[in-house]
Amino acid sequence: MAATAAPPRPGFLREAELRLLRCTLPSPPTSSSAPPPPPSPAPAHPLGAAAAAALAAVEAGDYEAALAAAAPHLLPASASDGPPASASRFYADLAAAALAFLRGDGGVDGEGFECRCALVLSAAVAALLAFTQQNVTGPSRKFPAFPFWTSSLDEGWYSNLDSTWDAWASDSLASFGSHVHGKFSLLQFIVFAELLFTSIRSQVPSDCLSVSWWLFRISMFQQNILDELSSSLFDQVQVYKNKMLDSFADLEKVSTYWGLLLGDGEGSYFVSAAFLEAGIAEYKYGRVDASRLHLDRAQEACGLQLYLTGILGFRTIHQVDAKSQMVLVTKTDKPTADEGQGTGPAAMHSDVAALKNARSSVPVESDEFCDILRMPRLVQDGNASAGESTTEPSAKMPLSAIQQAAVLAQCLHVSRRSRSDEMSGWEMAPYIESIDSQDESYFVVRSLCDILRIRWESTRSRTKQRALLMMENLVEDVGKEFPVVAQRVKLVFGVHMPTFPALRKEHGELLISCGIVGEALDIFKDLELWDNLIYCYRLLGKVSDAVSLINARLSVTPNDPRLWCSLGDVTNNDDHYKKALEVSNNKSARAMRSLARSAYNRNDFYTSKILWESALALNSLFPDGWFAYGTAAWKDKDLGKAVDAFSRAVQIDPENGEAWNNIACLHMIRGKSQAAVHAFREAVKFKRNSWEIWDNYSKVALDTGNVQLTLEAFKMVLNLSSNKRFNVDVLDKAMAVLEKPAHHVDTQEADPISNTSDDANKEARQSNHLLDMIGDILQQIVRNGGSNAEIWGLYARWHKTKGNLMACSEALLKQVRSLQGSGLWHDQQKFTKYAQDSLQLCKVYMEISASTGSRRELLSAEMHLKSSLKQGMDFSDTEEYKALRCCLEEIKNLIGASA
User: Fold this and answer.
1) Residue of 383 and 23 predicted with greater confidence
2) CA dist., res. 254 & res. 773, Å (int)
3) 77: DSSP letter
């Protein structure tokens, strides 16, 4: 029987795609039973050697060499003819030249096309990773100012263009309404990379599937360097993310695409990484539920299960008694193989040593800065002390690199899922400590773990000094030579690693929180973070210095809208915001927002509303903007737009309790009680201590007929206001509903008599329960001295409904007495109310006498009526006075009949 033919080995382009993606993913296991095959030799095509050289340079971390190998083939003909006219014109010509090079002479088939495509793909990845090295992972090095640079170009033509073209690249990367946040290097490189990836995608839309993954990564990088979330970038990220997941979210598709090129179990790395990056993207945009789904799939793909449990242990050095500590338990259904940590046999040992020693940012347990342990010392029983040798309940399970990244991603999800309070840091702690306990981790994994620990410990006074030391060491670690570049880039897209300018900004903010403002000032000045710089000057009482510095920068870059906005902030001058709009061609959302706030403060609500509309049209992912827009529209009496604006605010930030409250109030105004109830239900989740929200909640709940919800909300108002706030009208209406006869159950149409009886019993139980709730509320008000005539009247009605006429008469008597006063006998309206309540009291007295045969209640009623008629002679011609006289005659007759 003939042996089954082995599937053909994928072509050179597929192999180039795989090798380039491997540069940013964990290395295949070295102890695998089926390691990946060695790289194939360079194709025989004339471009094969150049493509193979560029590919090998990217794998070695020599991105400049990879770009140099590709640049001569991509430059437009105009590059050698003379100085370029402008950056936009040159890059347009470069895009056309890249497309022409990809097409070549033989179309999109054959070995030549694969070589051309692999060369362009390698150059694009090299440009992106060079930007990553310079701005995220380090170490920083001297790159050419232009990604397309080659020795054939005349240096004189380009010598003075680097700053101008970098400014153009910054404007190109900035989305509508957003700006690059801070000072970044090599911005042209990311523009160049996007241009090349887009060229490949336009030529081979159905092949070279990894291009969508790289474009997704570029889009996320672009979002990470902007000062705020961008709605246009969000749409772009979603498109590329969906295409990436469509190609790489299924293990079978990954195995089919690369076939024999994959090592044993390597396909799951790609699936896990795809879901991890998708989850991080959703986390970035605040889509918590979507992020959780992707992260769950990532954990499933890498065979990881996470559980939280409590174990006795010690948190401080001097702790005597063991306390319960929250610990992360990890379980995996896949054996953890040794992952290659180096880029080659010669580099492996030195890189592993560098990784093990790359923890200088974390002080040792016995440091002199605090007595709080970095990780709790766990014990099996509570008999040991923190100073004694303690025992782990189980050995720490080693996690693979992709599993460690999944743990950190879950940690970020927990921080976004939970509310920002003191407990959120402790909820993140088990995940941080789980990664800290690992013997080996990639550079970016360890760095992000340290950053999360710094953010947590900087919020606690006992560990803030250690957090500052860790941050200083971490900033220094980025500039060190080891680990090498190719090692640092591993998993850089699989963890939410901040850019180096963002990291330095966090360092500056931490310095300010520690009172070291001068050093923070230097950091913000170097990063060109003008808003933070102004804040520092204000802390130092040197606002004039901030104005001088901004004016000096404007003399150098007069067309920077960020500077004009900062100048407007520090001087409170709207003319500077208008200038920012002018120099940005009306694309500065920040300037529009500032003008909108200024108009609102002038009570020009219509203008504020229009400006907010324009600002949010530029960038809609701004929850505070939607809230302010809704407030301006509400003030302008445009209720429809106000509801829409607050609804958008809660779509972006579902935990915005104030926005939920405003939505509910607007529905109340428009008479949509059911919609208001739903909005209030969300509002009280996040503004639970606001008695005003609960008060409005009780009103709309009553409008919908939900008496139980009404009474529960009313009870919350009492508790939150210390029994000082209560709405008698709400209680009166609720009592009126319960005083009505029970709903009739049609027994003729109900077949089973037992069902009818059960329904009647259920209604009776529910009615009694609601009556008990009203009684508890009334008793709470009366006990705390908040009673008045209306409350006593309600209390009397409640006692009468419960069948207690004696208690009802006592409450009515207190109601009548509370109405008495010097103004009663000279105010007809007060007398009318007094007379009506007196008649109710006397009728109850008559009911008690009729049921018990007692004359005492009748005599009390007679005495009360005589006194009232005598003092109310001024109102003898009113109907109420005549009713009191008739009641007195009736009572006299009853007394005479009982004699």
Assistant:
1) 23
2) 62
3) G
Q: 624 Cβ partners below 8 Å, 6+ apart?
A: none
Instruction: Tell me how far CA of residue 248 lies from CA of 30, 256, 281, 320, in angstroms.
Output: 23, 11, 16, 52
Residue 180 has phi, psi (to 5 degrees) of: -65, 130
Determine whether 658 is exposed, middle or buried from the number of CB atoms within 10 Å of its CB (0-12, 13-18, 19+).
Answer: middle
Q: Which run of H or E residues covers position 271?
A: helix 266-284
Alpha-carbon distance of 412 to 394, in angstroms, equals 26
Q: Which residues in 16-132 belong to E strands, given as ranges? A: none
**Burial class for 841, CB neighbours closer than 10 Å (0-12, 13-18, 19+):** buried
List of residues 6+ apart from 656 with CB closer than 8 A: 623, 627, 649, 650, 686
Name the pairing type of β-strands 323-332 and 304-316.
antiparallel
CA distances from 588 to 349, 597, 598 (A): 51, 15, 16
CA distances from 394 to 379, 380, 675 (A): 10, 9, 53
What amino acid occupies position 780? Q
DSSP 8-state code for residue 8 = P
Sheet with 304-316, edge to edge strand ranges: 323-332, 304-316, 372-378
Nearest to 292, CA basis, from 412, 178, 422: 412
* Rg, the chain, Cα only: 38
User: Which tokens sit at 832?
Assistant: 């009318």
pLDDT, tens digit (0-9, with 9 covering 90-100), for 348-367: 344 444 444 444 455 554 45
**CB atoms inside a 10 Å sphere around CB 8:** 8
Residue pLDDT, tens place only, 574-584: 999 999 999 99
d(CA 734, CA 228): 49
Using CA atoms of 495, 500, 501, 505 in order, give the dihedral in degrees to the nearest 10.
80
pLDDT, tens only, 276-323: 999 999 999 989 899 999 999 999 999 999 999 999 999 998 889 999
Q: Which amino acid is at 378?
A: L
pLDDT of residue 835 exceeding 80, the answer is: yes
Asked if the model's pLDDT at residue 464 lies above 90, the reply is yes
What is the spatial distance between Cα 461 and Cα 713, in angstroms, rounded to a whole number? 39
Structure tokens at 186: 């090599």
- Residue 83 confidence (pLDDT): 74
Give the predicted TM-score (pTM) of the model.
0.82
Interval 598-640: pLDDT, tens: 999 999 999 999 999 999 998 888 878 999 999 999 999 999 9
Question: What six digits make up the tokens of 14?
Answer: 């597929």
